[in-house]
Every structure is written in structure tokens, then in C-alpha cells.
Automatic annotation (TrEMBL):
Source superkingdom: Bacteria
Protein's name according to its UniProt entry: Nuclear transport factor 2 family protein
A Pfam family per the record: SnoaL_4
Taxonomic lineage of the native organism: Bacteria, Bacillati, Actinomycetota, Actinomycetes, Pseudonocardiales
Coiled-coil segments on the chain, per record: none
Domain SnoaL-like: 6-127
Species of provenance: Prauserella cavernicola
Amino acid sequence: MTAIDDLLARTEITDVLCRYAHAIDRGDRPLARTCYHPDATDDHGRFSGPVDELFAFFEAYGATLSGTYHFLGVPTIALDGDRADVETYCLYRRQSVDPAAQAVLQGLRYVDVFERRDGRWLIARRTVVLDWEHAAPPAPAVPSPDTWTRGSRGDADPAAPLTRALSRRVTG
């Protein structure tokens, strides 16, 4: 593998990781599904099995959440031909639709096997490692004013044009 090939592989793998986090947080599960090979498996803690079943689980579990937030660290990537072992640190926050429930903040690591098939690097196997978690603190005593632009899922989010562009890029 040339130095350019190495850089291209690392860039594509990093792009897949970022696309996944963006898609999940924007509630676009079809876009998130494009980050995996068709026969991929995922051990996501609450679910372990084939990726299509994972996304069926996400559909049901996602309905209980008003929002999620992924903040990814720089991935550590070990390339070996058409395979890469990848570890990515992640701060993850989830908020229930139940207004009385506290948000949960977790320190995670994605331990992934990426494979290049048909010229595309995608996740073949993922294990989500939970290093720590705690209930998020209560709402701020003085909340931010309504003048802030707020994030949401779907077309109401300010990043919706980016989500559509990412979908066009990976689907044709």
C-alpha cells in the first residue's frame, strides 16, 4: 500500500465513522445503515447480532429517545491490506422522551473491523465498549434563551442539507 493509498483509506474510514454519528443523531437510520457491509454484525450492548436486526432495534429504541449526541475522538487505525482494526473514543448522550427522566452520558469506544470490498471501506464488525456512564446533571438553573438555534431530528435540523448531501453521495 502506497502512502497515498494509506491516507485515502484512513480518510474514507474516518468519513464513515463521522457519517454514522451524524446520521444517528439526526435520526436518519437509512443513512447510518450505509456505514455497514450488508452482512455486518454489531454488539451494541443492548443488542448483539446482524446489522439489519440492529437497525430494527434502533427503530424501536429510537422512539423512546428525544435525542442523542455523539462526539467522536480521532480514530486509531491499523491497516492490513483490505482490513483495518479501528478504535474510536466516543462521548455519547441520550435524552428520553420522558421529560422526568435524566439524560445519560456515556464514555464509549467503538472497536471496529472495517473491510474494503468493491473498493469501499465499511464496518464489517462493531463492538461498542462501555467504559463509564452516569446520569446527566439536572437542567441549568438559567436555561439558554430561545434565541439559540436548536438542533432536532429530520428536516427541521439546521444540518438537514448536509444530511441530504451525505445521502446523495452514498446512494448515487
